[in-house]
Amino acid sequence: MSKATPGPQGTEMRWATLPDGTRMLISTKRGMSQDEVDLLAAKLWRQTKS
Predict the structure, then answer these.
(1) Which of 6, 25, 33, 43 qualifies as a FRET site for 18, CA 20 to 30 Å off?
(2) Interatomic CA distance for residues 12 and 43, integer angstroms
(3) SS3 of the chain
(4) At residue 14, what are phi and psi to the nearest 5 degrees?
(5) Which domain does 30 fall in, by range?
């Protein structure tokens, strides 16, 4: 599940691990590191918990 899936206009679908341990598929900029993807997902997760 770690392989990126190409998306439109410089994006790709990536699996990310959230702070609670669950995984989600998110759209990211192409070329982001896995740490950056996980950090982005954590920020989105935190916003939905507020």
Answers:
(1) 6
(2) 18
(3) CCCCEECCCCEEEEEEECCCCCEEEEEEECCCCHHHHHHHHHHHHHHHHC
(4) -135, 145
(5) 5-49
Q: How far apart are CA 29 and CA 24, in angstroms?
A: 16
What Rg do the C-alpha atoms of the chain give, in angstroms?
Answer: 11
Question: How many domains is the chain built from?
Answer: 1
Q: What region, left, alpha or beta, does residue 30 occupy, with left being phi > 0 and alpha being psi -120 to 50 degrees?
A: beta
pLDDT tens-digit series, residues 5-48: 776 788 999 999 999 999 999 999 999 999 999 999 999 999 98
* Whole-structure pTM value: 0.74
